[in-house]
Input
Amino acid sequence: MQLNRLNLCNFKNIGEASLEFSDKVNCLVGDNGMGKSNLLDAIYCLSFVKSFSGVTDAMLIRNGADWSTLRGSYMRRDTPEELTLGLQRGKRKSLRRGGKEYQRLSMHIGLFPLVMVAPQDIDILRGAGDERRRWMDMVISQSDPTYLDAIIRYASSLEQRNRLLREGCVDHSLYEAVEATMEGPARTISNTRARWTEDLRELFSARYAAIAGSEAGSVALDYRCSLDASPDGSLAALLDSARRHDEIVRHTSVGPHRDDIEMSLDGMPVRRTGSQGQCKTFTVALRMAQYEFLHRSAGLRPLLLLDDVFDKLDARRVEAIMSLVTGDAFGQIFITDTNRKHLDEIVERAGGDYRFWKVDSGNFTAI
Output
């Protein structure tokens, strides 16, 4: 899959832009805060219908404007495709594929796979468990519509249970009715996460070793499933055992929404013991493993977006990442950096067609 052309209007600090891309390497160079990452975020929005940075839709619209439009022209499975995302203050966002509007935005997830590597990835390691759950859900949902449906149904039932808790409800029959709708989705979520972690572990270990080289050490990913603490392995029993506590704290304290992944280096939690370079290597390797997982499951090469990927890495690890991303395993790449030297080396290694833009205050000049 590749993105051939992108047209933006009133997106973040970008007033208007129209760019045609290389099918291999696309480089954006410029100082920090000029709009390089904003362009990558626009591409991300067309795949996920939301910002990578997690800001609200209203914050994606340029200051002083009431609306924003993003339009991407793709080649997907040898077929031309066009996506148009419309944002307007105070109104529901609209996504059209080939001119036809989606009735449910969740139907779009996974059709245009994408992997983004960014400085914010450190939150996957050092953030709270919800960061890692969000990452798991985002990756798995792109390849498994059944999982995405389970996540949506579980979240809806969880909100109903939390509402009962907030309102001080003591009618256990009401709790049991809601909890019965959570059981099936919870089992689907937990089983799928466990299988996915097994699949990702091997891919991740190989990519971490490739980047870290002789300093790799032993890395591990271990899924911590909340249902493992259930007396009989069911969510119903787990919720029943926690009901009195939940009534006191007024929220649901157990379930798949509390699951986590333990990430370790040489047997120690990398979030606590890893250096900046080790943590950056860890997160880049996670994203590279994510790319290969999506490639295998979707049968498409995802777009690869690399935002300031070389920061906090020594020259040898930069060299290793360059060797990886310019190899045959990756398709179309979009990369930002303040240092043109890195970008020139990427282009030289990749060979073939490439495009360069200088970015300045939301303006893009081909160079």
Q: What stands out?
A: The chain has a mean pLDDT of 94. Residues 1-113+300-367 form a domain with the Rossmann fold fold (CATH 3.40.50.300). The radius of gyration is 22 Å. The first helix runs from residue 36 to 48.
